[in-house]
Design a protein that fits this description.
- This protein is an alpha/beta fold.
- Helix content is 32%, strand content 23%.
- The strands form 2 sheets. Strands 1-4-5-6-3-2 form a 6-stranded mixed β-sheet.
- Strand 8, helix 3 and strand 9 form a beta-alpha-beta unit.
């Protein structure tokens, strides 16, 4: 495994054969990783390209880009995980980190009826969203993602339900569902570009929630006879879907 450090930077930071490192990237490279002048780092622009650069001398934030190339790490199938608020922040962070590593294109976080955790003050909530974005960014750099997954917040399940029509397939992960995920997932010859995975909280979905989602096209499915934790369910479904669609 390559140990060359990787960082996401805004695409406008890269101009021709030079790039200007944002302050937080420069700090991490110089102070945390202790990169020395002449060492190599790789910059991801979030648009599908990587740029191999040479770290500069002194306090300069400008680096020399010596080559650029396309990254081919994004799955063909774009999967969004709609995850109910988990009991602890650690569980949510696991979903975001490992889901990003596996290949999720985005995340929607929302409070379900049985979610123990609830939205906090506006200030605390903004800090939490900032932390989530940082976790996704770090996981994207580690796993060499070409595009940063999005993290969105919806205050109500109804707002999530309104989005289902935007996806080619939306499934509700539910241990009591009669249909297995593999039976509703289209065969390889059937085109499908987007998938929404809806995951309930530790206490599971209520009957009302399943009905609300089913009315707008959500298909209840199970992942097998074993009961998975909420922080495991989305990851298992992600892996299954991408295995079926990855070239």
């Amino acid at each position: 495994m390559s140990t060359t450090p990787r960082f996401f930077v805004p695409p406008e930071a890269i101009v021709g054969s030079e790039a200007v490192l944002p302050p937080e990237v420069l700090h991490h490279a110089r102070t945390v990783l202790r990169l020395r002048p002449g060492e190599i780092l790789i910059l991801h622009d979030g648009r599908g390209f990587a740029h191999e650069a040479i770290f500069g001398e002194g306090k300069s934030s400008t680096v020399v880009v010596r080559r650029s190339y396309p990254l081919k790490t994004e799955p063909v199938l774009r999967i969004t995980v709609a995850q109910a608020l988990t009991r602890t922040g650690e569980k949510m962070e696991q979903v975001l980190q490992h889901g990003t590593e596996i290949g999720a294109a985005g995340f929607i976080v929302f409070p379900a009826e049985r979610s123990v955790a609830r939205p906090e003050s506006a200030e605390k909530w903004e800090k939490r969203k900032e932390r989530w974005a940082a976790i996704v960014k770090s996981a994207s750099e580690q796993s060499r993602r070409a595009v940063l997954p999005t993290v969105e917040w919806e205050p109500r399940l109804a707002a999530v339900a309104e989005r289902l029509g935007r996806f080619d397939l939306a499934v509700v992960l539910h241990e009591s569902a009669e249909a297995a995920f593999r039976t509703v997932f289209p065969p390889p010859e059937t085109p499908i570009g987007t998938l929404l995975l809806l995951v309930g909280p530790e206490g599971g979905w209520t009957e009302n929630e399943v009905e609300v989602l089913a009315r707008v096209g959500g298909r209840p499915v199970n992942l097998g006879p074993r009961i998975l934790r909420t922080e495991t369910a989305a990851l298992a479904a992600l892996a299954q879907a991408l295995y079926a669609r990855e070239p």
